[in-house]
Amino acid sequence: MAEFSGDSVCLDVETIYLGGKEHIVRTNKGSVSVIVYGDPDKPALVTYPDLALNHMSCFQGLFFCPEAAALLLHNFCVYHISPPGHELGAAAVCADDPVPSADDLADQILEVLNYFRLGAVMCMGVMAGAYILTLFAMKFRERVLGLILVSPLCKAPSWTEWLCNKVMSNLLYYYGMCGMLKECLLYRYFSKEVRGNADVCESDIVQACRRLLDERQSTNVLRFLQAIDRRPDITDGLKTLKCRTLIFVGDSSPFHAEALHMTSKLDRRYCALVEVQACGSMVTEEQPHAMLIPMEYFLMGYGLYRPSQYNGSPRSPLSPSCIAPELLSPESMGLKLKPIKTRLSSKR
């Protein structure tokens, strides 16, 4: 848990994920689970995970990193949104319920924000979750303060992704969360350095993720996969985004080229890219320390800083020379921006 006193914060990162409160928000497209951590009077940070993941398996590494937890929990109340049926202990979604589209999932986020009476929010998404949050930002620009995207998607599936999705769909339909399906997902998430091979054991984070995948309901994962597989190309709408965007991608990610494509289509005045070496798609789990310095500079643009006892630079394998020059420019990253009110005054 976190204790705040003036400009300082004391964090017990081992209990961060034990103190959150779950809310089940009923929307027009079904119920969605939201785990809330922190002081609700603080600005809101909304997260959305990738396929078959939730906050435990997608963001735990980042929030268990003490400096990152200090930066984020000192400045934000965190709202972890799970894709329908992906929350801990979720039952199988009724087979008669229509499969939501990517647009439906983006609209659900709006209903979640309205439920908590939130105004403009900071968003953090990973892969499919990054796509949903980007789509949300395009549809409801006034509700998004900024985007932190990890290995984001923006185009319709490539032939390679379509084929992989087809294989996973068949595995889910006929065999459930079987071993081969988990291998497909782990390839999607992690680099070969941590997945291991015949001579090298897979890392602890991969083993932990494998165990968490056992808890997913295959029918629920299939529904989210179908929504993402049918996603439209949103490239043309990226230029309309005026919120600042920070993109992370591992150089071993299957979506590396797509992240570069997305960066090239965004307004360069508002976008910065960080490529993380020897890392897969899920930078939040595989190399969370690589996110610290870029996030700190990014959030400085909103008048948000780390608490006093973390004044030293974060421990990060990412040297300043590895960061895109525009990220290190205070003017480019918006240091002149004023903090934006994030809570609406109207009652629910």
Automatic annotation (TrEMBL):
<comment type="similarity">
    <text>Belongs to the NDRG family.</text>
</comment>
<dbReference type="Pfam" id="PF03096">
    <property type="entry name" value="Ndr"/>
</dbReference>
<dbReference type="InterPro" id="IPR029058">
    <property type="entry name" value="AB_hydrolase_fold"/>
</dbReference>
<dbReference type="InterPro" id="IPR004142">
    <property type="entry name" value="NDRG"/>
</dbReference>
<keyword id="KW-1133">Transmembrane helix</keyword>
<keyword id="KW-0472">Membrane</keyword>
<feature type="transmembrane region" description="Helical">
    <location>
        <begin position="115"/>
        <end position="137"/>
    </location>
</feature>
<protein>
    <recommendedName>
        <fullName>Pollen-specific protein SF21</fullName>
    </recommendedName>
</protein>
<keyword id="KW-0812">Transmembrane</keyword>
